[in-house]
Design goal:
By secondary structure, this protein is of the alpha+beta class. The strands form 4 sheets. Strands 1-7-8-12-11-10-9 form a 7-stranded mixed beta sheet. It has 12 helices and 16 strands. The protein is globular and about 70 Å long. 28% of the residues lie in helices and 26% in strands. α3 packs across α9. It folds into 2 domains: 275 residues, BirA Bifunctional Protein, domain 2 (2-Layer Sandwich), CATH 3.30.930.10; 85 residues, Ferrodoxin-fold anticodon-binding domain (Alpha-Beta Plaits). Bound molecules: phenylalanine. The site of phenylalanine has 12 residues, from β11 and β12. It catalyses: tRNA(Phe) + L-phenylalanine + ATP = L-phenylalanyl-tRNA(Phe) + AMP + diphosphate + H(+).
Length: 399
């Protein structure tokens, strides 16, 4: 992390049954695409920094090197678990208390889906790969920071298609206000923060896109109320690019800020970059292919990506009877584990339940390399490995 790669053995106890982080994900830790000035993610991050620097007189502090390994809740790390020593530097300075929290600190309810092994990568029962940069809100507040941007890689188990990848990048923004700020306006503090937030983000969208069609949608997050999502019109559809809202008072109170209000946002850098640079597939961000990397220059936002010729896709279907524990995320992880970035999409194309109550799923897997043509042999080999592994790991019955 921060240029240092960490090995799986440094972090995971081999016999830990909770661990569901495959090696393909481990290899992404420490890649830090957001700190590469010539990479679309780094270029976008810098452009957002420019917006905040020039509109807020550099009041926003920037953090981009906090460890993606975080705890689920407040943990005393003494003696530290294996993973604990890789928690972010801020936490280590608080040793033996680790403050860095993905869930409890930001009020994520105990039964929220995002806590499940199906959605989140667990290193051990109390340590996860952060699934959002909101994991750092509370620790930074406790450290006395009041206005900040946190950028980093986040990890989510998910389905496979052109806009979803198990590792992506987010930028969190956080801004605390004092009574003087809203008193003058004559508005109620929550309304004041909500209006300021929307104004800030609309300004950011204009700074990045010039004109673009956008809309606000009301939503729910455990850590904000009211909460909103901003969607941008892209390729004939509305694409969610950020979540935000007025911070729950309980979060501020934890840091003695009960007389303040705050707003927060978390935006998805890949989603924005796909729109800005016309990047058609999220896997491209991880490509070393010069035909991709050479198209972007430091400081040049919105240069349109010229796709190199698309190689032909290869479709393979697989059908099986599922068991009760089956989930699509687990299936996708198996496919990704075997095919890596050669898998473009996994789609459920048929599902039915027979008279005995057994349910069958048929998935279509799209294999395609962004760099070359795949041979039949190679794809058949991948598919046969998928069939073996699915049977072995997922307790399903192939049809
Ligand atoms: N953490 C939320 C997500 O990842 C985004 C968010 C951040 C929402 C801050 C509100 C406030 O979806």
């Amino acid at each position: 992390i921060g240029g240092v790669t960490i090995a799986r053995n440094d972090v995971v106890r081999d016999d830990d049954p909770t661990n569901n982080v495959p090696d393909s994900i481990f290899s992404k830790l420490g890649m830090q695409l957001h700190r590469r000035d010539k990479h679309p993610i780094g270029i976008l991050k810098n452009a957002i920094y420019d917006y905040f620097d020039s509109n807020y007189a550099k009041q926003f502090e920037k953090f981009e090197d906090l460890s993606p390994i975080v705890t689920t809740k407040q943990v005393k790390c003494s003696p530290p678990s294996k993973a604990c020593i890789f928690l972010s530097p801020i936490s280590v300075s608080n040793f033996p208390f680790v403050w860095c929290q993905n869930f409890d600190d930001v009020l994520v309810p105990a039964d929220h889906v995002s806590r499940s092994l199906n959605d989140t990568y667990y290193v051990d029962p109390q340590t996860v790969l952060r699934c959002h940069t909101s994991a750092h809100q509370a620790e930074l507040l406790r450290e006395g920071h009041r206005r900040f941007l946190v950028t980093g890689d986040v990890y989510r188990r998910d389905s496979i298609d052109s806009t979803h990848y198990p590792v992506f990048h987010q930028m969190e923004g956080f801004c605390v206000f004092s009574p003087e700020d809203w008193n003058e306006s004559g508005k109620d503090s929550t309304l004041y923060a909500a209006e300021d937030l929307k104004k800030c983000l609309e300004g950011l969208a204009r700074h990045l896109f010039g004109g673009v069609e956008m809309r606000w949608v009301d939503t729910y997050f455990p850590f904000t109320e009211p909460s909103f999502e901003l969607e941008i019109y892209f390729k004939e559809d509305w694409l969610e690019v950020l979540g935000c809202g007025v911070t729950e008072q309980r979060i501020l109170k934890q840091s003695g800020l009960e007389n303040n209000v705050a707003w927060a946002f978390g935006l998805g850098l890949e989603r924005l970059a796909m729109v800005l640079f016309d990047i058609p597939d999220i896997r491209l961000f991880w490509s070393d292919d010069e035909r991709f990397t050479s198209q972007f220059k430091k400081g040049e936002l919105g240069v349109k990506f010229k796709p190199f010729s698309k190689y032909p896709p290869c479709y393979k279907d697989i059908s099986f009877w599922i068991s009760e524990s089956f989930t699509e995320n687990n299936f996708c992880e198996v496919v990704r584990g075997i095919a890596g970035d050669l898998v473009e999409e996994v789609k459920l194309i048929d599902s039915f339940t027979n008279k005995k109550g057994m349910t069958s799923h048929c998935y279509r897997i799209v294999f395609r390399s962004m760099e070359r043509s795949l041979t039949d042999e190679e794809v058949n080999d991948l598919q046969s490995k998928v069939r073996d592994e699915v049977q072995r790991k997922l307790n399903v019955e192939l049809r």
